[in-house]
Amino acid sequence: MKSYAIERELVHAPSVLDDFPSPLPSTSSIVVVGVGYVGLPLAILAASKKYRAIGFDIDEAKISRLTKRDANYITDEEQELLRKQDNISFTSREDDIWHASAYIICVPTPVKADHTPDLEPLKNASRIVGRHLSRGSLVVIESTVNPGACEDVALPILESESGLEAESDFYFAHCPERVNPGDVKWNVRTIPRVIGAIGEESLAQAIALYQNLLDAPLQAMPSIKEAEAVKMVENAFRDINIAFVNELAMSFDRAGIDLLSVIEGASSKPFAFMPHIPGCGVGGHCIPVDPYYLIRYGEKNGFEHRFLLTARLTNQKMPKYAVRRLSHALRQKKRLLRGSTVALLGLAYKKDIPDHRESPALEIEKELRAKGARVRTFDPFVPKLSSEGTLEDALQGADVAVIATDHTFFRALTPENFTRAGVDIIIDGRNCLDKKAFQESGVTYRGIGR
Ligand SMILES: NC(=O)c1ccc[n+]([C@@H]2O[C@H](COP(=O)([O-])OP(=O)(O)OC[C@H]3O[C@@H](n4cnc5c(N)ncnc54)[C@H](O)[C@@H]3O)[C@@H](O)[C@H]2O)c1
Predict the structure, then answer these.
(1) Ligand 1 site, residue 122, Cβ cutoff 6 A
(2) Which residue has the higher pLDDT, 12 or 219?
(3) Pairing status of strand 193-197 against strand 218-220
(4) Helix/strand/coil percentages in the chain, nearest 5
(5) Ligand 1 centre from 372 Cα, in Å?
(6) Any ligand 1 atom below 6 A from CB of 156
(7) pLDDT tens-digit readout, 12-46
(8) pLDDT tens digit sequence for 284-297
(9) Most informative mutation of 106, 228, 230, 282 for ligand 1 (most atoms within 8 A of CB)
(10) I need a surface site. Which of 40, 70, 246, 340 has the fewest CB within 10 A?
(11) Are residues 436 and 316 in the same domain?
(12) Shortest CA distance to 103 belongs to which of 135, 57, 139, 130?
């Protein structure tokens, strides 16, 4: 297995055809392994670009829903596209994925209870792909992994299962996904990507494929390790910046300074400042998870990522901080959290999507119950976890409310929505309500840093 140093270059889609071999013919088949938040939009995109797309997943219930075009976790636009495609199929049968031109692995990369990386799904997917790989196929890993995982974990499995050698028999690359669920502008088709590969041929093949799939620039990375590190750094950067404003929020709340106004003021500087907004916690499959991949990778190399660990711990304590804000507001009115009825609005980890993985809202719910509160939950995007079917039901008879997700639906709420139901304290965990309007209405309003 050779490793090449490839000169760093920015590859813009239109020019790449001059330098790289022809992309896969549009009749080629692409197997997307793992059709979740990342894999499904990619499979739909491949089908829309006239590839024969096969979405493979071990979750048979998901496959059965997707076969019926039931896919509520992608955007309306993507669902529409899916309904129109006839060159896409879904399967859990390994027999259906023989001899594809490309296999793109989009399986989860979670952490275990002790926050160490769980690479089992990646290993399993590599075994499955390895068993069905043919000479000339391209394998791309899109899952987020620490540097070294593609070459040291996935690749040996692919080679031993297939009996083939990377770069000479099949092509191998890493193209970390950057998708931002719910974002209509920046989606699987429009987000620029970085690609690292095991050698020049693999890089050329991967670039040719993605150049065909995306309407976005591609950046060739000198190695797979550096492509892996790009994604780690992006998500760690976000975690750290959010932790910084969350720390400021906890400090400024004591001082009576509105951090949101401060951030707005600082944003008037036209360079070297990037606004981040404090909140009741960080959720999802990426930001609370990926920094641990880098932290553990550092540990393996004898390095302690103290800064990253501090950021993680800071963000982890924000759900409890939101509950403390509520307890404090209640005590000021000579009331207790124990025995109060709390309407918890929002269960998803971010706005306008149903994803509730690692959601701070769930931590808030746990903490409220642990402190003896009665909790009513409502999220229009997550009905299966909501105890109430409507906002009115959630607020009816509640004493206080906590906003844990800034769904557009919640952002539009006015003081009357709450006062009508007798709710007189609101913890705006996403700083998404009109603070002035709420204060003027006589409601006790507390944001995070606001
Ligand atoms: N969700 C995001 O916003 C996002 C953004 C960028 C990157 N990522 C990364 O992309 C990867 C996938 O994330 P996701 O959010 O799509 O996860 P997901 O849980 O929504 O989907 C993953 C799918 O893979 C399937 N799967 C698991 N093991 C499999 C196997 N051996 N063979 C076939 N299918 C298998 C699961 O059943 C699931 O349907 C992760 O590494 C994640 O960190 C996610």
Answers:
(1) no
(2) 219
(3) parallel
(4) 40, 15, 45
(5) 36
(6) no
(7) 433 333 444 455 655 689 999 999 999 999 999 99
(8) 999 999 999 999 99
(9) 106
(10) 70
(11) yes
(12) 139
DSSP string over 79-135: HHHHHH-SSEEEE--GGGGTT-SEEEE-----B-TTS-B--HHHHHHHHHHHHH--T
pLDDT tens figures, 336-352: 999 999 999 999 999 99
Q: Are residues 204 and 76 in the same domain?
A: yes
Whether residue 352 has its Cβ less than 6 Å from ligand 1: no
Q: Which of 171, 201, 222 is the last residue of a domain?
A: 222
DSSP-based three-state secondary structure for 72 = coil
Kindly state whether residues 51 and 94 are assigned to the same domain.
yes
69 membership: H or E segment, kind and range? none
Query: What domain range is 394 assigned to?
Result: 257-450
394 Cβ inside 6 Å of ligand 1? no
Q: Which residue has a Cα nearest atom 15 of ligand 1?
A: 37
Instruction: Tell me, yes or no, if 286 is annotated catalytic.
Output: yes
Q: Integer distance in angstroms from the first to the last C-alpha of the chain?
A: 56
Question: Are 15 and 108 within one domain?
Answer: yes
Which mutation among 38, 146, 157, 186 tests ligand 1's pocket best, with the greatest number of atoms within 8 A of CB? Answer: 38
At 166, the amino acid letter reads A
Three-class SS state of 335:
coil
Do 70 and 166 lie in one domain? The reply is yes
Q: Which residue's entry shows tokens 């669902």?
A: 79
For residues 308 and 172, state if they share a domain: no
Bridge partners (DSSP) of residue 35 are none
Which residue among 106, 150, 280, 286 is the active-site one? 286
Asked if residue 386 has its Cβ within 6 Å of ligand 1, the reply is: no
CA-based Rg of the chain, rounded to a whole angstrom?
24
How many Å apart are CA 436 and CA 349, to the nearest integer?
A: 26
294 and 178 both lie in a single domain: no
Query: Which residue owns the Cα nearest ligand 1 atom 20?
Result: 36
Last residue of a domain, one of 160, 195, 222: 222
**Phi, psi of 218, rounded to the nearest 5 degrees:** -120, 140
User: For a substitution probing ligand 1, which of 31, 78, 107 has the most ligand atoms within 8 Å of its CB?
Assistant: 107
Q: Using CB atoms within 10 A of its CB, is residue 389 exposed (0-12), middle (13-18) or buried (19+)?
A: exposed
Burial grade of 239 (CB within 10 A; 0-12, 13-18, 19 or more): buried
Give the pTM. Answer: 0.91
How many structural domains comprise the chain? 2
- Determine how many CB atoms are found less than 10 A away from the CB of residue 338: 11
Nearest residue CA, atom 23 of ligand 1? 34
What Å distances lie between residue 276 and 172, 272, 399, CA to CA?
36, 13, 31
